[in-house]
Amino acid sequence: MAFFRASTVRYLNRPKCVTIGNIRLRSTTNLVKEADGIDSKDVKSFDEIPGPGMLEVMKAVLSGQLQKPWKLIHQFKRDYGPIWKQKLGSNNLVTLTDPKDFEFVLRNEGKYPRRVQIDPWLIHRQERNLGLGVLLHEGADWHRNRAALSKRMMRPREVATYSDTVNDVITDLVNSLVRGRSNYGKDNIVPEIENTVFKWSLDSACSVILNKKLNLLDDKPHPEAQEFIQAVHDMFESLMWLFIFPVHLHKRFNSKPWRKQLRAWDTIFALAKTLIDERVNDVTKRLTSGEDIDVEGTDFITYLFIKGTLEIDEIYANATELLAAAVDTTSNTFLWVLYCLAKHPHVQESLYEEIKRVVPTGESPTHEHVNRMPYLKAVLRETMRVYPPVTQIGRILDRDVIIRGYRIPAKTVIGSNVWLIGQDPANFPDPLEFRPERWIRKENEQFYGFKALPFGYGPRMCIGKRLAELEIHLATIRVCDQFTLEPTCDVEAKVTTITAPDRPLNLRFINRNA
């Protein structure tokens, strides 16, 4: 405790002041004892934070609200206000619904920011004697992995070099949509577009990460790729259930979600290893033969292998996790973009007009075109406001903090409900309207960025953010340029850890030049 008090005083001994709710923290005060207008005796304890009990949460689970928790989340905010706590598996979770509160949390991360540790994934790696990647490492090991990956995955200039590779797979996607529509032969509908998009996303990721295009969209059977895709679905779906009860109980009783999670990751790692082995063996042969490889101009895996800053098992872990993440996150977000465009013809036409202004006829779009297309970027941002890839992001701080008058102990999971913030009219006027224009700023107009964090924030933001944006932007341009999209049904969201459509989209793809 003495160390905590001393370190807290050192941290606060800086000129900056921070406002949290109605509390203003001064640079020379003790974080817990003295806040303007609040004496230490007025600071409320963690136990006083309101929130649902385990019985209420279990009732919601049993009533089927787990996959569609929207009403429940709104109810919690009505009942408990802008902050509440609940038990989530083995963790205490504090949920914040005011973006300014979560901004304080993010700005007080330490040198090595901590996200929620996903225990089922960590246990799987330990039991299978597998390495950890950037998703599961903590501390200095996390920082070393993040630094190694960031050069090729987070720097815009580096990611821009993937444009040709990404466009090559998008060409396959567009051709597959044309064939699918023709084979179906009815009302310009492309059936099973979801699986087509999953294969596109996986093939694009393999092309970038492994320098190996799998040609998954050639209408031939690809059983191993399909097995990989299904394993990713199973992993995310079972993970949601593993968050409800402490993971040690799932493990002790060998629950169905636990067995499903382990099988899924075993399949993911086994199939990914086959692909990664091929690339690593090729690099090894080239180095053994004395070939001088330009490390800066080479592909992602070769770059990591030659640089030597990561252990070989870390390279395998990072590549596997990037491939798995690409299947459900990038693909589902792109599906939502297509759905939103189909549901809002005026938005679709405004985007088409921008495409025709910026991208010359007959040319494939590039990152340079994307940089001159504010409406395209606004469409993606508005889609992720309405359908965020994940509904909640969280952090763990290494010091006690006071938020809205409550003392929250160090090591507590503090989360921001991204979905609820995006639906709050205080943050976004008329939140039920799909309006990309809200993201296009006028000259000198300021935007409070913490209202929208679909990829997270800071050093712990999604490592695949830049690549996912590039893929979705370029694919949206190509699809919108060739087709007019029309819906055939209304679709709602469901949560399987990832926010996904609850039924097939069955969109119509009508040739613009027909």
What would you say about this model in short?
With 514 residues, this protein is an alpha+beta fold.
Gross geometry = globular
- Helix fraction, binned, reads 40-55%
- Total count of helical runs of at least 4 residues: 19
Main beta sheet strand tally, sense and closure: 4 strands, mixed
Number of strands: 12
Strand fraction: 5-15%
Low-confidence stretches: 1-37
Structural class: alpha+beta
Strand order of the largest sheet: 3-4-8-5
How would you characterize the overall build of this protein?
The chain is of the alpha+beta class. It has helices at about 1-10, 55-60, 70-80, 100-105, 120-125, 140-155, 155-160, 165-185, 195-210, 225-240, 245-255, 255-290, 300-305, 310-345, 345-360, 365-370, 375-385, 420, 465-480; strands at about 20, 25, 85-90, 90-95, 390-395, 400-405, 405-410, 415, 485, 495, 500, 510. Helix 9 (about 195-210) runs antiparallel to helix 14 and helix 14 (about 310-345) packs parallel to helix 19 (about 465-480). The model is unreliable at about 1-35 (pLDDT under 50).
Blueprint of the fold:
Elements: H1 2-12, E1 18-20, E2 23-25, H2 54-62, H3 70-80, E3 83-88, E4 91-96, H4 99-107, H5 119-127, H6 139-153, H7 156-160, H8 163-184, H9 193-209, H10 223-242, H11 247-253, H12 256-288, H13 300-307, H14 312-343, H15 345-358, H16 367-370, H17 374-386, E5 392-396, E6 401-403, E7 406-408, E8 413-417, H18 418-422, H19 465-482, E9 483-486, E10 493-496, E11 498-501, E12 508-511
Parallel strand pairs: 4-8
Antiparallel strand pairs: 1-2, 3-4, 5-8, 6-7, 9-12, 10-11
Helix pairs in contact: 8-9, 8-19, 9-14, 10-12, 10-14, 12-14, 14-17, 14-19
